[in-house]
Amino acid sequence: MKMTTKSLLTSALLACGLILSLGAVTTLAAGPGQRPMPVVSVIEVAAQPLTLTTELSGRTAPYLVAEVRPQVGGILQQRLFTEGSEVKQGELLYQIDPATFQAAYASANAVLARAEANLVPTRNKAERYRELVEVKAVSQQEYDDAVAAKLLAEADLAAARAALESARIHLAYTGVKAPISGNIGRSSMTTGALVTANQAQALATIQQLDPIYVDVTQSSSDLLQLKRGIASGVLKGAGDGAATVTLQLEDGTPYPLEGTMKFSEVTVDQTTGSVTLRCLFPNPDGLLLPGMFVRTRIAAGSNDQAILIPQRAVTRDQAGKALVMVVDNEEKVAARPIDVLRTVGDNWLVSSGLAIGDRVIMEGTQKARPGTAVKVIPFAAEAQASNN
């Protein structure tokens, strides 16, 4: 019994000694008061070409629109076009009864002939009296009366010519012609209807659809942001009215031809806070019709050396200023304020604050505070995407 107690005491002392030895070894391995170095994953800032596009919705509008109205009154004798067809400028569309206008033209022509005939003797008399007054054969008063009669006859002739021209124009207006080339719609009046000069109701409407306009709206704040980016040099403008535009139809199919942006409205709509942009598209097959809802993608600007940073790497300070965490040349964490222009997909377009080659921390910022030395590993975007 005594031997057994002594053996157990010896074993316990050996076990305590072993534990103390292991503790001493562990402390030496970790070092007194030291923690493992934080590990962060980073991406290296690189420049890349960027074309900035803006997607906007809008509607199509005809390139030219003309409402056909009669310029003289009368009865419609004929309609000389097919509704929905294409007409050419100057093509005869309607014929108004010309009988009364032909009579007025003939009367004006007769008045002109009488004025021409009356001018001949008065002019000859004035010429004769001019010679006679020099030799005192007629009085000065008689000569003055002859000259006045000649001038009156010349004025009557000019008035007769003007009246004849007016009658000719009114007679020509009985044939209602197309003011522009394009597609003509339905006729609002039929043969036999009475029309009046410059009436409120149009006889028909002609629209030129090739090319065709697409009017879209953009918020004034987005437009200011774009102009600010171009002014700062972050973006290059697409040229004076030469921005390329692509189109998507309302059924989701892309339109095969590209267009160009022609101009931007100079005023902001006070009710919507938006600005109207007008684009021009070729429409040779007539696929686009006025009033269609479409979506456009406008190439608003470009940058051959754009800096894009994932949105998840950007935080905000208490003042709302954007900032990122970077690893400096001493392998320590530093906070870097940046200026961002706009989002591009899942990224921010950075206008200032970062340079090519900077290392931006993507993961590990929870344990890596500014000034902390860290171990850097590349950020595995593919692995992160697969985990998500």
Characterise this structure.
The structure is a single chain. With 388 residues, the chain is of the alpha+beta class. It contains 5 helices and 21 strands. The protein folds into 4 domains: 39-49 and 306-387, Beta Barrel (conserved putative lor/sdh protein from methanococcus maripaludis s2 fold); 52-62 and 209-304, Elongation Factor Tu (Ef-tu), domain 3; 70-96 and 174-201, OB fold (Dihydrolipoamide Acetyltransferase, E2P) (Beta Barrel), CATH 2.40.50; 99-172, Helix hairpin bin (Helix Hairpins), CATH 1.10.287. Strands 1, 15, 16, 17, 20 and 21 form a 6-stranded mixed beta sheet that branches. Strands 2-9-13-12-11-14 form a 6-stranded antiparallel beta barrel. It has a 4-stranded antiparallel beta sheet with strand order 6-5-3-8, with no helix packed on it. Strand 15 and strand 16 form a beta hairpin. It is elongated and about 135 Å long.
